Amino acid sequence: MAQVSMTVNGKAASGEVEGRTLLSSFLRDQLMLTGTHVGCDTSQCGACVVHVDGQAVKACTMLAMEADGADVATIEGQANADGSLNVIQQAFQDHHGLQCGFCTPGMVMSAAALLKENPKPSEQEVREYLEGNICRCTGYHNIVKAIMAASGQDVTAIAAE
Amino acid sequence: MYNFEFEKPGSVADAIAALGTEDAQALGGGQTLIPTLKQRLAQPSKLVSLKGIAEMQGVCTGDDGAICIGGATNHATVASEAGGYPALAATAAHIGDPAVRNRGTIGGSLANNDPSACYPAAALGSGATIVTNTREIAADDYFQGMFTTALDEGEIITEVRFPVPEKANYQKFVQPASRFALVGVFIAKYADGVRVAITGASNDGVFRWAEAEAALSSNFSPDAIDGLSLSGDDMISDLHGTGDYRAHLCGVMTKRAVAAAA
Fold first, then answer.
1. For the domain B1-48, what is the CATH code?
2. Mean predicted confidence (pLDDT) in B214-232
3. pTM (2 decimals)?
4. CA atoms in the 13 A half-sphere facing the CB of B133
5. Residue A108 CA to its chain's centroid (Å)
6. What is the complex's ipTM, to 2 decimals?
7. Among A26, A70, A134, B106, which is most buried by a count of CB atoms within 10 Å?
8. Considering only CB atoms, which chain B residues are within 8 Å of A65?
9. In A, which residues are within 8 Å of B31 by CB distance?
10. Which of B6, B38, B179 sits opposite A19 (nearest CB)?
11. Is B13 helix (H, G, I), strand (E, B) or coil?
């Protein structure tokens, strides 16, 4: 066992982990931040996407000790300071970008990473960026629409499809 | 996963020392190794992360004009910083998905030498030099079959040097579930000839297609591939495609790469 320390959603967090402890396990089982979902556990589905030092990563395919000293952001830290949904989260609600909601934390975190590096993505760019996030409910259409709307772009053309 | 120790040294020398432990294993971005460990297909005593080694990070241009990439540089960084070799940057930009590209490293990919990975095609197709802690290995000598390389036990890739061609392109026929190449063809046109490297197809891993190289060296156009074919006998055959299908795709993707080369 070894000690790891990191900043999670702006707060200092630390704990004892084994070498094999995944970042997803540390977040969920020790910090009780269960918003980071583990879907496939094989780095395919993207439900576990979090940001490590500002970069989107799959928390099920990174060791907790690899994140020692890092700045980690999870879905729990995405809402506005007053508790209201942030722009991306609100857009997912407004445009029905979720059904069962299991993939949503990863979708929102991937969307946040995309909009940080590309504030006005095209529909195609959104679809390509979501290659590593799987949704079994929506058919992606409303997720793409929500992300386009969150970027401040007109989504009436997409809505017409 | 079986348990293991974890160490994150800050220099190549410390990493080599750490890898001296019996059954120690180097860890790049872990995008293949961690899933492998989850399946209990490997049982290292210790993982030695190479991500804390500053001298193995980043992209630069060498005195000879080659693009030099630190072994622990992730795919996203190559995609954004290897603009001096656009086809290489484009190849990196389409490996896996964005989250995978933020973790996976060029050294890890080349050390693993997955028969369907993209970087082996880029390295072999460019005649790259694989620099390790002890020596420099030409790509032609480095790849030795599926998951097999010239690396010795405990040897790590510190840098990869890519000579920049006049024209190059990588065309990947994506296997949509894994996002690996069902077949991927990297072509590069240098002053002394054309190189064609193919991943995803052969049971022997990445390989050069000599007949296509000869044809394209005298006539760099898609038509030059007409009439050339590879045998499907030694190609990977699985539920995603037969050997004959992959052999056919080699020709198709080579033509597309030539047509798109810039």
1. 3.30.43.10
2. 97
3. 0.96
4. 20
5. 5
6. 0.95
7. B106
8. 6, 8
9. 43, 61
10. B6
11. helix
